[in-house]
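Before drawing any conclusions, I needed to go through one protein's amino acid sequence and its backbone structure tokens, quoted below without any editing.
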Amino acid sequence: MTRFPSQTPHGEISEVFSDVFFVTGSVDMMPGFRISRSMTILRDGDILTLISPVRLSEAGLKGLDVLGRVENIVKLGSYHLGAHNGLDNPFYVDRYGAKLWALAGMEHKGGLSTDHILKAGGDMPTRDLSLFVYESSKMPEAMFVLNREDGVVIAADSLQNWSEVDEFFSEAAANAMTKGGFIRPANIGPEWKRHCAPAPAEFEKVSKLPFRHLLPSHGTPLLNTAKTDLVQTFSHQFS
């Protein structure tokens, strides 16, 4: 395991909806600068799909194995966490032989290559999923819509819900990310927006997607009011 990046602190796996799980972990962006990041887990029978994978501790992996068998991992965004994008994907491919799903044109760490290319209307790693792609983003970026529970959007960098600094932030990261506009509920990822420059019309399309909840890779689940809250954010940022 020494050839993989070290595992960093994370919380417990929680079940948000039936067969939909969420765990908050962390990543060291640089020495002394740690932020949180989150992984969504979808279960179909005994098959697990990990979205924006976060490496778990041995105890965490035992809990994961209780849920089912990891067969798929998904990379939804190219910009996601910058240099740390896809940091733990090689670990899960090595440990479980998981298949990697990603958009066309994405590059991967550890010499990995995409096993299944994601595209709107194409094959999905598990049932009840559809794909939304930000066509104007300078780097490939997409979201899943899980067609259960009145709709659940699963996002990478584009939509975030860091409503407050959590226990996984270092002090330096907490200060910098707050000043940078990251610590806001129902937010558009500030650096993703700046770097990838999506067209405002993309968010009009997002507002028409059928969803009620958001499971972000940055922040906590936003349940029941996600669409209403995000539409208000879109209106404010693109007014």
User: Anything to note?
Assistant: The longest helix spans residues 226-237. The mean pLDDT is 95. The two ends are 49 Å apart (CA to CA).
